[in-house]
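Q: Hi! First time doing this. I have a protein sequence and I read that you can turn it into a structure. Is that right? Here it is:
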Amino acid sequence: MKFRPCIDLHSGQVKQIVGSTLSDDKQNALTATQSTVEAENFSTDKPASDYAVMYKDDGLTGGHVIMLGPGNQNAAKSALEAYPQGLQIGGGITSSNASEWLSYGASHVIVTSFVFHNGQIDFDRLNGLVDQIGKDRLVLDLSCRRKVGDTTGPYYVVTDRWQTYTDVEVNEETLKMLGGYCAEFLVHGVENEGKRCGILEDLVQLLGNYSPVPVTYAGGVQGLDDLDRVKTLGNGN
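A: Yes, that's right. Below is the predicted 3D structure, encoded as structure tokens:
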């Protein structure tokens, strides 16, 4: 197991938001022209490229640059240029721009809404992406949450800035099947993301037990003890 950094971008700024408070046009999330955040933990005028340089100097690989809504492309490009092949890029990635973002220096592209379309896995889109860039350059974002009011039920993949539930459960079958199409999974425990309230231990254990590819888990970490729990529950994966 290793620690991976992240650069979250909203309206061109580096921010750390509470995951469930970002909203935009659900019907057109890939082309939305604005988004709003109700709660954030951190915001800075320091450019994204400065963080990329810091991660490069510290030898941290596999970090994520996530574009949360529109207005982030220039900041994202600057980070990738500062640390070529050291960062992955996500947020609005489709078959139309995946190769372009790789050409800007991203090691991988991270995809959710484009593949999880109309509540289901769109295998035509998924296969098209794999044919275009190769599975070794693709990260599938399985960020998920339980249905409202259900504290013990299954986790469902959510799309459109985590606003829309799909019908896709994160379970053994889904993990093993989708692992054949990508290099890695990225999974935010949306219920706890940005709240620093502790990790979703059952989700981490599920991922550690059944994912056939490496997984980056994010959501709820309060301190170093939680990182040790992720390592233990996730079987070091």
